[in-house]
Design goal:
189 residues, alpha/beta, Rossmann fold, Arc Repressor Mutant, subunit A, 2 domains, five-stranded parallel beta sheet, two-stranded antiparallel sheet, 7 strands, Bact_response_regulator, CheY-like_superfamily
Length: 189
């Protein structure tokens, strides 16, 4: 292959890596984030549901993905594995308003490169997408509160039980409705 052809192929490959799939069911957040990411040089295709994202993937292979964890028609965590089958080297991050240690670990195990709590700063999202993975996060100034430790434990058991509320309640020796109320709330600080 000549040098010119090699350069064109390399440039096309680098350009296609700027393609980004944004999957979030919050319209206002999705539009603001898409605009911010486009200003940073990404070519964004946005979807509000898993069904819409799957249809985009018919002719689109993104180098990056920003996925909301809880969607009306499914779960962004499960979609990471699906996306990695189509694009093995995709750099995907999970965004969630229901952050906890168990889902953070699950997102990394499914192939996401990072996990950010909403409302996430757009600059933090761009940094997470472009980081090389060599940097180590800083140690927090304050330890977790007792409420947060309890929340993390409940979420870990919930994930281990396959997100089955009844089984989780049995494991925790807790009333199912009490557990449902706890799971419906945002995580404590």
């Amino acid at each position: 292959m000549t040098e010119t052809k090699a350069f064109v192929v390399e440039q096309a490959s680098a350009e296609s890596h700027k393609d980004l799939l944004l999957l979030d069911d919050d319209n206002a957040f999705r539009q603001r984030l898409a605009l911010t990411l486009e200003r940073r040089g990404f070519r964004v295709r946005a979807a509000a549901s898993l069904m819409e994202a799957r249809s985009l993937l018919a002719d689109f292979r993104p180098g990056y993905a920003v996925l909301d964890m809880r969607l009306e028609d499914g779960n962004g965590l499960e979609f990471v594995a699906e996306l990695r089958q189509l694009v093995p080297d995709v750099r995907a991050i999970i965004l969630t308003g229901y952050g906890n240690l168990a889902t953070a670990v699950a997102s990394i195990k499914t192939g996401a490169i990072d996990y950010l709590a909403k409302p996430a700063d757009p600059e933090a999202i761009v940094r997470a997408l472009l980081e090389d993975g060599e940097s180590i996060p800083e140690v927090p100034d304050e330890p977790m509160s007792a409420d947060r430790v309890r929340w993390e434990h409940i979420q870990r058991i919930y994930e281990q039980c396959g997100r089955n509320v009844s089984e989780t309640a049995r494991q925790l020796k807790m009333h199912r409705r009490t557990l449902q109320r706890i799971l419906g709330k945002r995580s404590p600080r």
